């Protein structure tokens, strides 16, 4: 199954003659429009306190409901990666923060409503400005600090986060 099979009609003219063009696009035989499906931008907030504890959340929603995660999510249109990361941090934790530095990126396939969304996830080291006000909000069921030495990457439900946590543990 091609990952664009959910798109059955041309978004330009509405034709049903909308066919696979290559691995990331479909072409309309009626009007010639080509739809390219590119990766969605996503961000991850890596918050480590002075005692080498990582701020971790438990996912309240699918995909991977109930598994561990890091604060973050999709970048909105018109946002920079940094703005999206800080907004997601605020939405999920109630905290303000500043970007300390960019860490790395990874890829993921995020399944949502039966559709596979390819993402490029940018990981940022974040410094919290009001850590005492942390509370789980939005799609975070709970938030807690975990010592880096006690983290098990396999407890994280999303593959890119799991790989990112492995890198964080090895680099911090």
Q: How many helices in DSSP terms?
A: 2
Say how many strands there are: 10
Strand order of the largest sheet: 7-4-9-8
Using the alpha-carbon principal axes, give the shape.
Answer: elongated
How does the major sheet shape up?
Answer: 4 strands, mixed
Structural class: alpha+beta
Question: Roughly what fraction of the amino acids lie in strands?
Answer: 35-45%
What average pLDDT do the residues reach?
94
Can you write the helix and strand succession as a string? EEEEEEEHEEEH
Low-pLDDT windows of residues: none
- Distance between the ends: 41 Å
| Helical residue percent band | 10-25%
Please state the CA-atom Rg, rounded to the nearest Å.
19 Å
Structure characterization notes:
This protein is α+β, with helices and mostly antiparallel strands. It contains two helices and ten strands, in the order βββββββαβββα. It has helices spanning 81-93, 159-171; strands at 18-22, 25-28, 34-36, 40-47, 53-59, 68-69, 72-74, 97-112, 115-128, 140-147. The protein has a four-stranded mixed sheet, sandwiched between helices. The chain has a three-stranded antiparallel sheet with strand order 1-2-3, with no helix packed on it. It has a three-stranded antiparallel sheet with strand order 6-5-10, with no helix packed on it. A hairpin with a 2-residue loop joins strand 1 (18-22) and strand 2. The longest helix is centred in the middle third of the chain and has 13 residues, at 81-93. The N and C termini lie far apart (41 Å). The model has no long low-confidence stretch (mean pLDDT 94).
